[in-house]
Amino acid sequence: METVRVELGGRSYPIHIGAGILDAAELYRPHLGAGRVAVITNPVVAPLYLERVRGALERAGAVAPLDVLVDDGEQAKSWGALERVFDALLGARVGRDGVIVALGGGVVGDLAGFAAAVYQRGIPYLQVPTTLLAQVDSSVGGKTAINHARGKNMIGAFHQPAAVIADVGALATLPERELRAGAAEVIKHGFALDAALVEWLEAKLEALLAREPGALTHAVRRSCELKATVVAADERESGRRAVLNLGHTFGHAIEAGAGYGAWLHGEAVAAGMVMAAELSVRAGLLEAADAARLRALVIRAGLPAKGPSMAPERYLELMMLDKKAAGGRMRFILLERIGRAVMRGDVDERLVRDVLAAGAPPASAAAAR
Amino acid sequence: METVRVELGGRSYPIHIGAGILDAAELYRPHLGAGRVAVITNPVVAPLYLERVRGALERAGAVAPLDVLVDDGEQAKSWGALERVFDALLGARVGRDGVIVALGGGVVGDLAGFAAAVYQRGIPYLQVPTTLLAQVDSSVGGKTAINHARGKNMIGAFHQPAAVIADVGALATLPERELRAGAAEVIKHGFALDAALVEWLEAKLEALLAREPGALTHAVRRSCELKATVVAADERESGRRAVLNLGHTFGHAIEAGAGYGAWLHGEAVAAGMVMAAELSVRAGLLEAADAARLRALVIRAGLPAKGPSMAPERYLELMMLDKKAAGGRMRFILLERIGRAVMRGDVDERLVRDVLAAGAPPASAAAAR
């Protein structure tokens, strides 16, 4: 087992990474109080891992851990699902001394983390991510949220977990499509922050996709290290942290435009990154050859390299609603080189339209001109 | 105008107190960014003060401030009301650079503050309290929340305002019943923290209830000073801050048992404080004469000195659900002397039953024995 620490003063926490650590009672024990523990998970993950986690919690001293099941998929990040979680917690009299365990992928983590952020004005929670996406990205950093019909992650909070327990063994049961979606976030970390990780991916992508434990552990550990450094420097995303959103301005528009759940988040980020790299080239920031390396890696990972057919106007409308749009101006995370992402608020809208038109269906593209 | 500061490092903020300061543009200006401003208020407050606040915001540079109206009364602290606020903010494209202004009493402040806490993972907000209760208590300290059918303030966040603008002139239009309910919180601050404030109240209560500006300003300023000191020492209520909940364990049970809105919060706190003082006497902590001074002041203020007729079992059930119940044990804020409240988790339940039975209807009291 390896441990990466996120250094945030009084809110610092460990990320434990290893194979088979999901039921290690000693990893849970330091974070349980006198109160009730509630495990929030979904009907896909529960049959696979719930009993092992319950067992570990009981050995760690938790009395009768409560299970709360939410729907599988992005639609679970909803107002209604959140309310049902609160009903369950209050019905079981989970108090301010209670602890939530988020067992599942990014959706469960975002929803359970947000529930923990606002339940009785905030209680602690543990992230036990069971997807590659959650292990390399969403379980770390304290971003929690639910979606709104008008935009993804519009209602949420920054609420750091007390610990992250990332068992790469749990990835054995992950559907192929979700594994690839998770790889998109590893690619993101490489292109945004670390050229060496990009080179590693170019050498080891097939080992990662074949779920070789060593490759999985390396990808998770390196991603967590990179993310931990950025989060420690800028917890609430007032600046630097925004570079982790590479591919997200286009990606959120793809997810919203296609209807939440139609595209996996990682798939939308993959296509969004390719579009952001193309925009970086058009803006004169990035070499075309480096954008081509991103595109090639995305395609090799079996991920989409372009967005769905939508009129550029629709893309722009959805992108304007992105949380990163400040004062009515869109902000983009662009690449200066591989391993170096920057936030730019001064991108010429015509360049954005050019990128969108290149991927738009012929009729809409013609109409938009 | 007087200004009290809440010292919380990077989250410090001023509380401005004075007559006629509601439309002082210079008090708003430092807190507005480039983004849109949304004023959240209700149909009772809007005709009285919205235009003045809008005018001040416009003079301070805000372009086309958005108005969002929520229902009047405790029922507005609901899930549905919160969702409608988000719909309005997103519909008007309020971004992460937006600012919320909470114009109204405690309900508006709690709801608007919570909306600000979680909208796009948190945006700044200003409190412009227009009731005595909000000016002396709820607008200061960053506690925000909505209610749940199973308990008051169950879903919420600690989110400090950027500033508080407390115009005692706005209290001229406050209904008599609400003025008295606000006085309950001033009495609370005195009995929990400051014997001198209790003596001042015993001398000046009628001047306060007659809305003499000097008396109002003194009550608001002294209450804010006391609360600011406690909040600065314990922002998230891990210890000392809990003494501000004097009367709230009984009070929340009264509010929930009677149905939200039937009792005003201040009325429930008044009766709850008398019950807490009685419990303090039975526990051997407080002199009976001091409990009698509290009771006398509550009655002089035209406030209820006992709770509604409910079986003791029902009280206990509702009290167990209070957020202060930890590990299944009720916690009470008791008085050791006037101006000195303490939190106690070791109160004998029989003493609590005695206090409840003393105020219970004969049949239920008999049944409970």
Q: Give Rg of chain A in angstroms.
A: 20 Å
Q: Which fold name is given in CATH as the topology of the largest domain in chain A?
A: Dehydroquinate synthase-like, alpha domain
Strand neighbour order, sheet with most strands of chain A: 1-2-9-6-5-3-4
Query: Low-confidence parts of chain A, pLDDT < 50 over ≥5 residues?
Result: 362-369
Count of discrete alpha- or pi-helical segments spanning 4 or more residues of chain A: 14
Beta-strand proportion of chain A: 15-25%
Nearest-integer average pLDDT of chain A = 93
The coarse silhouette of chain A is globular
How are helices and strands ordered from N to C of chain A? EEHEHEHEHEHEEEHHHHHHHEEHH
Beta strand count of chain A: 11
Lay out the secondary structure.
Two copies of one chain form a homodimer.
Chain A: E1 2-6, E2 13-18, H1 25-28, E3 37-41, H2 46-59, E4 66-69, H3 79-91, E5 99-104, H4 106-118, E6 125-129, H5 132-138, E7 143-148, E8 151-158, E9 163-167, H6 176-193, H7 195-209, H8 213-233, H9 248-258, H10 265-282, H11 288-300, H12 312-320, E10 332-337, E11 340-344, H13 349-359, H14 362-368
Parallel strand pairs in A: 2-9, 3-4, 3-5, 5-6, 6-9
Antiparallel strand pairs in A: 1-2, 7-8, 10-11
Helix pairs in contact in A: 3-4, 5-6, 5-8, 6-7, 6-8, 6-10, 7-8, 9-10, 9-12, 10-11, 10-13
